[in-house]
Amino acid sequence: MKLHRLVAVILLAGLLVGAVAYCLSNEIARVGTPVYIGNVRTGVFHRRSCICLPQEKNRAYFHSRREAVEAGYRPCLMCEP
Ligand SMILES: [Zn+2]
Q1: Ligand 1 center from residue 50 Cα (angstroms)
Q2: CA of residue 23 to ligand 1 center, whole Å
Q3: What is the 25 CA–ligand 1 centroid distance (Å)?
Q4: d(CA 8, ligand 1 centre) in Å
């Protein structure tokens, strides 16, 4: 009976560690890929999927909406980021 309980605890701990590792890797992936793209010429930022993204050389990358706004950019009216 005690052994079963020990096994259950070990399994649960394993699941917990796995879940935490999964969340951390997601977080790293999220931080690693910029979500918004700003146009340094117009001061407008877009979602990555927007049809009016600026040329590669005029792009500024942001990881969050707040980051873009704090950098002085305003949201695009087309993609409404
Ligand atoms: Zn846009």
Answers
A1: 5
A2: 29
A3: 29
A4: 51
CA separation for the pair 70, 74 (Å, rounded): 9
pTM exceeds cut of 0.85: no
Q: What is the pLDDT along the chain (81 residues), one digit of tens a residue?
A: 677 777 776 677 777 766 666 655 655 555 578 899 999 999 999 999 999 999 999 999 999 999 999 999 999 999 999
Q: How would DSSP label each residue in the chain?
A: -HHHHHHHHHHHHHHHHHHHHHHHHHHHHHHHS--EEEETTTTEEEETT-TTPPPGGGEEEESSHHHHHHTT-EE-TTT--
